[in-house]
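quick one before i forget lol
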Amino acid sequence: MPKGDVETRCTKCGETKPNSAFRFLKHSLYCRQCENVRDRKYKRVRKPYYRRVCHLKKYGLTIDVFNRLVRLQHGCCKICKRKFTQNKDAVPCVDHCHHLGHTRAILCRRCNIAEGILKTADNALALYQYMFENELFEERNSGLAIERA
């Protein structure tokens, strides 16, 4: 231990360690190692709830209002009608207007990402037309591929 380094006793594990082993944030008396164990346990148990609450505050929503919106949509995405689950792609997300700030609907993660990428109704319409034209083209030409074989 370097000369002049003061030691402190961790109130969790009971070991006496140099001050460099402590964070001293908010007068914590846990060493870094014990704090990390505690934080991992806390985050695993409470993080999903607090993440949701903090996330909803950005949109001016409470948990009750969010749950009511999900119920009004019968637990499904407003666009694709997929049931919300804890699956990564089917987690409910708040769709909001960036210009006016109001909440529009609750979407699944996939639809929310797609909507964010497209940004405007014009882009969505252009994509729809492109996909529709290519689908018709593939249908018309699928018979040619069979005939050639």
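fyi The first strand starts at residue 7 and ends at 9.
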